[in-house]
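Researcher: Please generate the 3D structure of the following complex. Treat every line as part of one assembly.
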Amino acid sequence: MMPFNDVGLASGLLCGFLFGYVLENAGFGSPCKLTAQFRLSDWSVFKVMFTAIVVTAVGLYLLRVAGVLAPDSVYVPPAFLGAVAIGGAFIGAGFAVGGYCPGTSVVGMFSGRVDGLLFSLGLVAGTWVFAGAFDAVEGWTTAGDSAAGDTLPLALGLPEWLILAVLVAAAVAIFIVGGRIEQRFNGPLDADASMRD
Amino acid sequence: MNPSAPSSPTRPFWPPLVAGLALGLVLLLTFVLTGHGLGATGFFTRLAAWSGGVVAFDSTYDNPYLGPLLDDGKPLASWITWQVLGVALGALAASWSAGRFKVRLDGIHRTRRLSRGLMAFGGGALAGFGARVAAGCTSGVGLSGSATLAVAGFVFLGAFFAAGLLASRLVKGGPQ
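Model: Done. Output below.
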């Protein structure tokens, strides 16, 4: 029965290699392309993330329905909604200012970007600041605990297939709306533009 | 032929739909193999504990957040470390094979080098701090969490994009 709960070296290297390979090919090593999402001139971040979320969510659902994936067997982050809102806001601001999120800074660094390395060093510094202030900010990490349930189907009391259908519709809408807004600018940033100084 | 064109042509990025389908399949594979999703900042937390242990062992060991990671003496020995190492190798393979590897300070179109360097570091520090509050980052909570239909994942993404939209308007000199 799945999952295999294999947290060894080979599984880490394999999943990570594929993750990094796809992110770089999506253009997500480029801080200009990544932050263009926040200027609304390039919707690739929304498009790629939402497509991936839908594919994985539907895949997990189908594997569970088929009886090959054990129910309640994959990790679901707890609904500390205040904590993820505060943390998400810090990461969004850091992304807009610095050009990356933690994962993509590694991709930027390993496509030759010195600013990706600097962002990664900043991540370590930010972690030290958090650890130094831990007594003061510990309460933030469990803020806004939602008693309604950790997943959307539980919290909203709706069947999972309906949530998935809404997510598919949202993904289609992002492609249509994002594509139109992109064309009002100069279109998404392509690989050639990402190489110019 | 344009003689000023680079000798190694840059291959285009994958279309977002293709990249999104591929990323979804990789994330699904990760869940099936390990029981959890993809991440990044778990590694940086361990790197902070390890480097803190090298620079100032006593104060890192006494720290209530990083200290426990030093208990077994091997703070980096974890699945997330191998996964981030894999990300580095995968990104290197992809950028190199597509003619997109180039050492440079990127995103300085309207910015000076020093300013871009400081903002990259400062943005990283903000993100590093925030990732500890949220117990994860864009990959771990936003992407992997939302893929399990976690409420936390979608709230994270909402706050992340709202703050990013706001910050990119208020703060001048971000990469572009």
